[in-house]
Amino acid sequence: MDVLPDSSQIRRLRKSLNISQKELGEKLSISQSTISRIENGTMDPPYSKFKQIYEFLESERISRKRSIKHAVDILTPEIIFINPHSTVREAVELMTKYNISQIPILENNHNYGSITSKKIQKYITDDPVFLKLKVTDVKELPFPEVEKNWNVKDISSLLLNYSAVLVKEDKKYIGIITDSNFLKLTSK
């Protein structure tokens, strides 16, 4: 015989899934008032009805857990980067070669900063010497770093302020995420 949770656990599970009593009742063809009485403990439902509610909620919880995407699910594993001793010209060549608009400045697993096409664009027309400068002389803030199990929803928030996010596992870079990774996610 299965051991089912008590009515208060049913309520907690339903609320954690953000399902109203009315929605749950509609999905299971049970009235909202019956759901309410079961959760409040003022009704002692038949075992089959209680089991039906619990199994639905548990199935929904598992289904939602599987559908949550993490950084590791959407990252680009090959990080195109430039070392801190390189010139802006070398950064431009890399950006052009790989058709990217931002590059992290990395060396020995250390994040020194970043350089973006917008920054280059801003200065290149005013000063041709700009291309000879070291990337560290004109660097921008480093891209944020997240662990591989970060939720993509949280990463999406970071991308509102940064052009890329670096992904780490065991303190080593394993990939990069940009807006284009999210566009690919929506096309799946």
Structural overview:
The structure is a single chain. The chain has 188 residues and is α+β, with helices and mostly antiparallel strands. It has 2 domains: 7-67, 434 Repressor (Amino-terminal Domain) (Orthogonal Bundle), CATH 1.10.260; 71-186, CBS-domain, CATH 3.10.580. 46% of the residues lie in helices and 14% in strands. The protein has 9 helices and 5 strands. It has helices at residues 7-16, 21-28, 32-40, 47-67, 71-74, 88-98, 117-124, 152-158, 179-186, and strands at residues 102-107, 110-116, 145-147, 165-169, 172-177. The strands form 2 sheets. A 3-stranded mixed β-sheet has the order 3-4-5. Strands 1-2 form a two-stranded antiparallel ribbon. Helix 2 crosses helix 3 (32-40). The longest helix has 21 residues, at 47-67. The protein is rod-shaped. The two termini are 41 Å apart. The mean pLDDT is 89.
Outline the secondary-structure elements.
Blueprint: H1 7-16, H2 21-28, H3 32-40, H4 47-67, H5 71-74, H6 88-98, E1 102-107, E2 110-116, H7 117-124, E3 145-147, H8 152-158, E4 165-169, E5 172-177, H9 179-186
Helix pairs in contact: 2-3
What is the straight-line distance between the termini? 41 Å
CATH architecture of the largest domain: Roll
Question: And the CATH topology of the largest domain?
Answer: CBS-domain
Largest sheet: 3 strands, mixed
- Rg computed from alpha carbons, rounded to a whole number of angstroms: 26 Å
Shape verdict: rod-shaped
> How much is the average pLDDT?
89
User: What is the helix tally?
Assistant: 9
| N-to-C SSE string, H for helix and E for strand | HHHHHHEEHEHEEH
Low-confidence stretches: none
**CATH superfamily membership of the largest domain:** CBS-domain
Helix content: 40-55%
By secondary-structure content and strand pairing, the structural class works out as: alpha+beta
- Beta-strand content bin: 5-15%
What is the class of the largest domain in the CATH system?
Alpha Beta
